């Protein structure tokens, strides 16, 4: 797929602590639009946080925030996703907890089978809250703790 830059694909599902917040996975996916008549596909940057939040961006602009509490994830056949390969769906979304989101499901497409399976695994772990327990078990060096205390006191 020409929409993807494979150099920026993160296939892992590890808790990352190198930034100011914990995330389990980030990368580019193609998102199916939610228009009433035309539903175009658009490349978006997604960040799955350990607190069951999935955010997506267009450039630097936040375009959506989804709470995954109670959601489910499944692979889709290409015939179910406008003939897109490597598609999957996040469904049973609690739309009451989602800002500016009008559908109880989100259809996405990855750049490869491996990437799709990695996203599905990470999303399922997030729904089960497995990622929060990983983040809680992160150990800090004394320098990091000192720096944290200095900044917030």
SSE blueprint:
Elements: E1 23-32, E2 41-49, E3 53-58, E4 61-67, E5 72-75, E6 87-91, E7 105-109, H1 113-127, H2 130-136, H3 142-152
Antiparallel strand pairs: 1-2, 1-7, 2-3, 3-4, 5-6, 6-7
Structure explained in plain terms:
- 22% of the residues lie in helices and 30% in strands.
- The protein has 3 helices and 7 strands, in the order βββββββααα.
- It has helices at 113-127, 130-136, 142-152; strands spanning 23-32, 41-49, 53-58, 61-67, 72-75, 87-91, 105-109.
- It has a 7-stranded antiparallel sheet, covered by helices on one side.
- The radius of gyration is 16 Å and the shape is globular.
Q: Structural class, from secondary structure content? A: alpha+beta
Q: What overall form do the CA principal axes indicate?
A: globular
Major sheet: 7 strands, antiparallel
Encode the helix/strand succession as letters.
Answer: EEEEEEEHHH
Rounded Rg: 16 Å
What is the number of helical segments per DSSP (H or I, 4+ residues)?
Answer: 3
Give the overall pLDDT as a whole number: 75
The strands making up the biggest β-sheet line up spatially as 4-3-2-1-7-6-5
Distance between the termini: 48 Å
Strand content: 25-35%
Contiguous low-pLDDT stretches (5 residues minimum) are 4-9, 133-153
> How many beta-strand runs?
7
Helicity, in percent?
10-25%
């Amino acid at each position: 797929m020409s929409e993807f830059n494979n150099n920026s694909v993160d296939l892992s599902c590890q808790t990352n602590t190198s930034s100011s917040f914990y995330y389990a996975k980030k990368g580019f996916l193609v998102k199916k639009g939610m228009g009433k008549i035309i539903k175009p596909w658009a490349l978006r940057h997604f960040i799955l946080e350990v607190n069951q939040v999935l955010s997506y961006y267009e450039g630097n602009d936040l375009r959506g925030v989804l709470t995954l509490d109670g959601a489910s994830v499944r692979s889709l056949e290409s015939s179910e996703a406008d003939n897109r390969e490597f598609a999957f769906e996040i469904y049973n979304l609690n739309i009451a907890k989602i800002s500016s989101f009008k559908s109880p499901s989100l259809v996405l497409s990855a750049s490869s089978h491996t990437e799709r399976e990695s996203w599905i695994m990470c999303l399922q772990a997030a729904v089960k809250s497995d990622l929060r327990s990983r983040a809680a078990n992160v150990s800090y060096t004394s320098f990091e703790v000192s720096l944290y205390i200095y900044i917030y006191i």
